[in-house]
Amino acid sequence: MPLRSAPLPRMAGHLSFMRSQPKAIHDVRPDQLAVLGLPFEDTSAPFAGQSLAPRALRETSVYFGWHANPQFSHPVDIDARQDIKTDGLHERLCDLGDISPGSEEAVHAALMTATCQINRAGACALLLGGSDRLSMTVQDALQGCQTVQLGGMPSDARDFHIAPLHNGTDPTLKIDTAVHLASFSRWRDSTRPLFVRFDLSVFETSLSALCDRPRLGGCNLDTVTQWLSTLGQHRVSAIMLTGLNPTRPGMGVVKVGQRLMVTALLAFVYARLGFGVMDSSTVASMENGLI
Q1: Does the chain have fewer CB atoms within 10 Å around its N or its C terminus?
Q2: In CATH, what number does 15-290 get?
Q3: What residue ranges do the domains of the chain occupy?
Q4: pLDDT tens string 262-277
């Protein structure tokens, strides 16, 4: 389904992620997925514009996943054109809005408090936007957590890295996905919280124009979706989406980047909430429609 540049009626009213119900943070319940926007610039990025990522991802999410469409009598994944079992999805997916702008100290304190509160409630935080420094705040909030990083620059050798950015080399391309998944199973300690950082740079070379930091190597949509589906089954405490700059030149390039992130993220959402997980044929059909 191609995206349009003009607003659609579905954009009217309050814009929440996947049209989920707005909630106050004290109303978050166990086993829910709580969306929180971080509309702030990444000072380490080469170009400004990351502060617009939360809204861009919310706008793109309206075109994806479950919708109460009067033309259908049951939930439908509108991109794969197939039924998905998502009874109760919108009772367990909620949008808390954005963290308010303020001083750097105030922003980090607010993120720390929100992450702790969501974690204490037994829910998972889905953070739209972020940066290296904000991810460190989330790690501090999830005391003793393990971190999985998809894409991005490696920052800690103890983290589990999937297609990280390197200068001229990408050793993960030489590792079979099945072997890498087995390595993850050995690395994972289920007694500790799990934090996932999903960076747009995880995608393969042919899509490198989507990122402010061009790369060599990377993963295709099928592989990223497989990883996010697997991670979603490990009771992730928080996932942060980074690397998206909606102000990059070229509307088509920007929208493809947003669609890739949200398409892959759906696998995580479904798996984390215990719903049907997309198979490889579904991912392939999405990829053919996107690229």
Answers
A1: N
A2: 3.40.800.10
A3: 15-290
A4: 989 988 998 998 875 4
